Amino acid sequence: MRITALAGGIGGARFLRGLRHHVQRVTDDSVQREIEGTEITVIGNTGDDIWIHGLRVCPDLDTVMYTLGEGIDPERGWGRLDETFHAKEELTAYGVEPTWFGLGDRDIGTHLVRTTSLNAGYPLSRVTEALCERWQPGVHLIPMTDDRAETHVIVDDPDNPGTDIALHFQEWWIRYRASLPARRFVIVGIEEATPAPGVVDALRNADVIVLPPSNPIVSIGTILAVPGLADEIRAATAPVVGVSPIISGAPVRGMTDACLRASGIETTAAAVAQHYGARTSGGLLDGWLVDTSDATSTPVIEEAGITARAVPLLMTDLDATAAMAAETLDLASHLRSTP
Ligand code: GDP
Ligand code: CA
């Protein structure tokens, strides 16, 4: 079975770790025989990418790579395990901006390899493949595009009220903790971006397309903004199943609500499903999982033309996350058998 998933950082990566665990532990038990030989392809968000002190940093790709490669700091959810920040302290002592970005010493190794390879002319997709040779994530990780397309946030200038300014997404998210009200998001360069090699094939050849519980606006939304990519999903033969990142009217972690607010979407599992829309009416979803605490919202999602199920959606540990992945695949196989 070929599974293709779109993914942002922490939410996407944790879900994928559960998915990989689920497909690996399954033996030839009759119900789940189709899972043997499963290949997982991950289309990663690169809208968060940024140049920091001359280094090309790809936060979401690295979060997926480190999480699946068991190199992540599990408490923070980003960056390397056993990390130190001496280089960052030195840069701060020089008074060099930006000082708000958490550039770890171990992490810098990854950014140096990436930057050197990019400067030598290799596309990001090839560089990512090379980095993954070390981490062996057990999935095929592809950036959404090899082109530069970075998310910016239009806000009221804190130093000059009444004037709009565009901040890089990372500055808005990390430095301001998404506290400056976002007017809108602009992905600079996205119109000229093309899907990276392998992205379109992964969507066309998939047996199931999964939208993990990643940020619907600045993670999944950014991937979907790559010209042609959303159309591939709309036209795919595989069922498309999504997992809600919103539980009981709030994000499980992070500031996703600030992104939804800026986009005029209510912070509820049902509103996010309606935002993606039903494939039967030109949208993206066939199925949607909400948390058991949101079970009362399934009828409104079904009315929109999306098959909805309520199951536990808290990724408290690997087994709980694997169970979520199993529910995702189960809903997909139900949708495949009842077209
Ligand atoms: P980022 O790029 O690091 O912000 O990560 P993603 O975009 O991949 O995921 C962020 C989303 O993950 C947030 O909206 C969270 O609500 C969601 N999330 C985090 N932990 C959980 C969890 O345990 N369950 C669910 N359903 N969503 C989660
Ligand atoms: Ca991200």
Which CATH class of the domain at 2-48 and 192-337 applies here? Alpha Beta
The CATH superfamily of the domain at 2-48 and 192-337 is identified as: CofD-like domains
Going by helix content, strand content and strand pairing, the class is alpha/beta
Question: Element order, helices and strands?
Answer: EHEEEHHHHEEEHEHEHHEEEHHEHEH
Q: What are the bound molecules?
A: guanosine-5'-diphosphate, calcium ion
Mean pLDDT: 95
Q: Total helix count?
A: 13
Query: Beta-strand percentage?
Result: 15-25%
CATH fold name of the domain at 2-48 and 192-337, please? Rossmann fold
Shape: globular
Number of strands: 14
**Major sheet attributes:** 7 strands, parallel
Segments where pLDDT lies below 50 for 5+ residues?
Answer: none
Rg, alpha carbons: 19 Å
The second-level CATH architecture of the domain at 2-48 and 192-337 is 3-Layer(aba) Sandwich
**Helicity, in percent?**
25-40%
Write the layout of secondary structure elements.
Elements: E1 2-7, H1 10-25, E2 39-44, E3 50-52, E4 55-57, H2 59-68, H3 86-93, H4 105-119, H5 124-135, E5 140-143, E6 150-156, E7 164-168, H6 169-175, E8 182-188, H7 199-204, E9 208-211, H8 220-224, H9 229-235, E10 240-243, E11 246-247, E12 250-251, H10 256-262, H11 269-276, E13 287-290, H12 298-303, E14 307-310, H13 318-337
Parallel strand pairs: 1-2, 1-9, 2-5, 9-10, 10-13, 13-14
Antiparallel strand pairs: 3-4, 6-7, 6-8, 11-12
Relevant terms:
Rossmann fold, alpha/beta, binds calcium ion, 7-stranded parallel beta sheet, binds guanosine-5'-diphosphate, 3-stranded antiparallel beta sheet, 339 residues, globular
